[in-house]
């Protein structure tokens, strides 16, 4: 502040009946003072209260184009607890849904006392990674337990710290409603027995690497082992 502005300020301040000493004393009174016990006391008026303004909710007015409060406020979209099959699958006779839980994490190698009795490359006992997914394991358990039904598909529904939960869709191929439905009676053919054990379901094709197509995935067909065997085999025929 310049000198002329400073003098004008003090002249206006003195005209109101105040002095510089009274200004210093009031400022010293508002400063916090320490006590012997380590606490801090604040004088009344030292901390100013700030009013927090909240915008009012306008009422809906079609003439002014003001939307209702439910439309203008942001809301988080809620989702169902699980993404189940379509209603046609749920309501059709001959189709049942079983819930399976699979324990999370890996498994130790089943050897007594961790002794493998083999080469050092095979001496690992812990931190082994299973080649198939938990969803595929759930389909396998349901298919083995219910041998008279065919596994159609499965999906994840929930998980906690110990288990993962899946729902497996199974089809009764002996049911008349299934055999007469052209959209689902393909599974009644004998070649579709235990699809889950041969990697023919959606989860099975995923861990087999059959989700992609093209030259980047040509080593996955018909399978990785068949491709390796074909590349490692030398065939010298007599007439070639």
TrEMBL record:
Keywords from the named record: Ribonucleoprotein, Ribosomal protein
Pfam families in alphabetical order: Ribosomal_L15e
GO cellular component: ribonucleoprotein complex; ribosome
Region (Disordered): 1-39
GO molecular function: mRNA binding
Biased composition (Polar residues): 16-38
Family as reported in the entry's similarity comment: Belongs to the eukaryotic ribosomal protein eL15 family.
PANTHER family per the UniProt record, alphabetical: LARGE RIBOSOMAL SUBUNIT PROTEIN EL15, RIBOSOMAL PROTEIN L15
Name this protein carries in UniProt: Ribosomal protein L15
Organism the protein comes from: Abeliophyllum distichum
């Amino acid at each position: 502040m310049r000198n002329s502005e400073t003098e004008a300020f003090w002249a206006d301040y003195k005209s109101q009946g105040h002095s510089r000493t009274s200004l210093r004393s009031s400022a010293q009174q508002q400063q916090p003072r320490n006590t012997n016990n380590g606490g801090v006391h604040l004088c009344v008026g030292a901390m100013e209260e700030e009013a927090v303004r909240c915008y009012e909710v306008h009422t809906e007015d079609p003439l002014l184009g003001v939307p209702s409060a439910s439309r203008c406020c942001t809301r988080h979209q809620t989702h169902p607890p699980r993404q189940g099959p379509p209603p046609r699958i749920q309501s059709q006779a001959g189709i049942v849904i079983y819930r399976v839980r699979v324990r999370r994490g890996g498994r130790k190698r089943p050897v007594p006392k961790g002794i493998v009795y083999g080469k050092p490359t095979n001496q690992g006992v812990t931190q082994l990674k299973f080649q198939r997914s938990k969803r595929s394991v759930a389909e396998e358990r349901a298919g083995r337990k219910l041998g008279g039904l065919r596994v159609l598909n499965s999906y994840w529904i929930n998980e906690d710290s110990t288990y993962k939960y899946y729902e497996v869709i199974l089809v009764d191929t002996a049911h008349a409603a299934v055999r007469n439905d052209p959209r689902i009676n393909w599974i009644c053919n004998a070649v579709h027995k235990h699809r889950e054990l041969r990697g023919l379901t959606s989860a099975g094709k995923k861990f087999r690497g059959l989700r992609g197509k093209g030259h980047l995935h040509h080593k996955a067909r018909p399978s990785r082992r068949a491709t390796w065997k074909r590349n490692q085999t030398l065939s010298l025929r007599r007439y070639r």
